[in-house]
Amino acid sequence: MSAYFSKIDLHCHSSASDGALSPAALISRALDKGLTHIALTDHDCILGLEEAEKAAAGHLTFINGVELSSLWRDNQIHVVGLYIDRKKQALLTYLEMVRNLREQRAMEIGYRLEKQGFKDAYSECCAQAKAGASITRGNYARYIVSKGRAQSADEAFNIYLKKGRSCYVKTVWPALMEVVKIILESDGIPILAHPKRYDFTNTKLKELLSDFKECGGMGMEVSSCQMKPSEREYLTKLCFDYGFLASIGSDFHYVGQYLELGYNLIIDPLLPKVWEHRQHKGPKN
Ligand code: AMP
Ligand code: MN
Ligand code: MN
Ligand code: MN
Questions:
Q1: What is the pLDDT of residue 1?
Q2: What fold does the segment set 8-95+173-281 form as a domain?
Q3: Domain ranges of the chain
Q4: Ligand 1, atom 3: nearest CA belongs to which residue?
């Protein structure tokens, strides 16, 4: 069998971080799109999981997930934790620590935006999101677009939010090793998120994969909705070469061009798939 379109989406966001939809609305959209499995993976936040799990019950397989921000050689690297036990104390303590870090940072970004003539940026972003949500630069990008000060989220990053721009705030995220350890301690499977998004050379990406594997990383994403076929083929090869489990996910935040739950998630049938790996062990959550 050749590569096929999957109805499994293991990377997406809700209003518990920088997604536009509530967790329940996200599940409802996943059902409309005919998905069979979904993992909710909000940035450094698990507050949407309970609502999503309830909405999914009896309709599609729900997987508890989270996307943790980390640092590797001064680069912001995202690690998705799948099948986490969301009640683990180590995870809760860790997320509380990062919540404080994110809150301070989000307030500082809001303060800088106010100097650029925006009003109540931080409180408006909080009001749009679920109580206790992670406020990320993604939330601010949408806020900036809603004020007509950028045409798209990408442009908001280019004008205000990316490194070197007026509202960028440098953040010292926990080390890659540390976030992998937290996911493992929470009985989760650490997956390297969107490996092509870091703009690394192939050599540097392989060094990242080696370090990730050495510290306990178990899988990598090989397909997302905006990926070019050549990128997917390269990631598929790396996944085989490094002996990783394969994961796939749209990284859906809101409806946009080529951005949709379950869209274009093509996978090589011979790859060892993270969702099948779990079935061997029996469902945990
Ligand atoms: P943060 O974790 O606060 O640094 O924010 C990262 C989030 O911002 C990502 O998860 C994306 O949702 C969003 N993001 C990053 N870069 C861009 C971009 N160039 N255009 C639109 N959204 C972006
Ligand atoms: Mn995001
Ligand atoms: Mn990410
Ligand atoms: Mn994401």
A1: 59
A2: TIM Barrel (3.20.20)
A3: 8-95+173-281, 106-161
A4: 136
